Every structure is written in C-alpha cells, then in structure tokens.
Amino acid sequence: MSHMTPCPNCDGGNLYKSKKISSGGGHAPNYLPGLGRFLSTAGFHVVVCRDCGLSRFFAHEEARAKLGESDKWTRVP
Ligand SMILES: [Zn+2]
Question: Between the N and C ends of the chain, which has fewer C-beta atoms within 10 Å?
C-alpha cells in the first residue's frame, strides 16, 4: 500500500484507511475468491477520501501472492 496520497480523483490529502475487512463469504459475495485460506476468506483494507468519497480496496499481500496460481483469476494483458 504505497503512494496512497494524494487522492487520484480529487488530489486531496484527507485519506482514511480501515482496519482489515473480510472479503466476504457466508451469505455475502466473496470479492477475493480463491485467495484466502481454508475456512478463511482473504482480507483487504479500504482507503476512503474524506473530500470526494472515492473508496479504494487493497487486497492484503498474502492474498495478492496467490493471484498467479489461482484459477479464479486471469491476468489482464
Ligand atoms: Zn478524493
């Protein structure tokens, strides 16, 4: 999570980062399928701009490390 500021939408500097949030599972959609551990969904942080409201989701490093080996994700050319 480098280079959070400034906000890419409004150039503002009032950004707030959440604690770890589960990416879903159970009755909620899983936004990071195939990237968690057994019985544990992957997590991310949300960074919200106080000025314009832009919200960005950042998958944890552990989840990102599995992207290349997961058949649920395709690398964008
Ligand atoms: Zn903003």
Answer: C
Q: Where are the alpha helices (DSSP H) in the chain?
A: 61-64
User: Per-residue pLDDT tens for 34-76?
Assistant: 999 888 889 999 999 999 999 999 999 999 999 999 999 999 9
pTM of the shown model: 0.81
Q: How many whole angstroms from 53 Cα to the centroid of ligand 1? A: 6
For residue 69, how far is its CA from the centre of ligand 1 (angstroms)? 34
Cα 10–chain centre separation: 20
- 17 CA distance to ligand 1 centroid (A)? 13
Q: What is the Cα Rg of the chain in Å?
A: 14
